[in-house]
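pinging the channel bc i need a second pair of eyes. not urgent but kinda urgent?? the chain im working w is below, pasted from the shared doc
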Amino acid sequence: MLKKIALGLLVTASLSYGSATIFKGTSQAITIDSEPEGAKVYVDGQLRGITPLSINMKKSLSTHTFRVVKEGYSPVTRTLEKSYDPVAILNIVWDLSTTDMLTGAAFEYSPNNYMVQLEKKK
């Protein structure tokens, strides 16, 4: 009897939420490093820290960019790349992946590690 109740709760939870939302969440850790280290990292124009840096980014449909800046070096700007998370395919059966699409969990940052080579200004 307890197994049937647990199974019923699991099925209800699965039907209520997106697969990628449940299994991987709506945010993801991104690591940004630079050579040389100690550069400031701006994400969407806001200072987020100094390299090496690991930040938790909310998944979304929006495009995000980061800029790595260090005095005496040319700044580097890159776009955080995304790809479709295959786990979201599981949710097509339940709600056509609308939950995962709305929460941004249908996508993942890929790669989630960035290494930026800074060049000295001339």
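so The chain has one domain: 2-117. and Strands lie at 27-35, 40-43, 46-50, 53-58, 65-69, 76-79, 82-84, 107-109, 113-117. — does that match what u expected or am i reading it wrong
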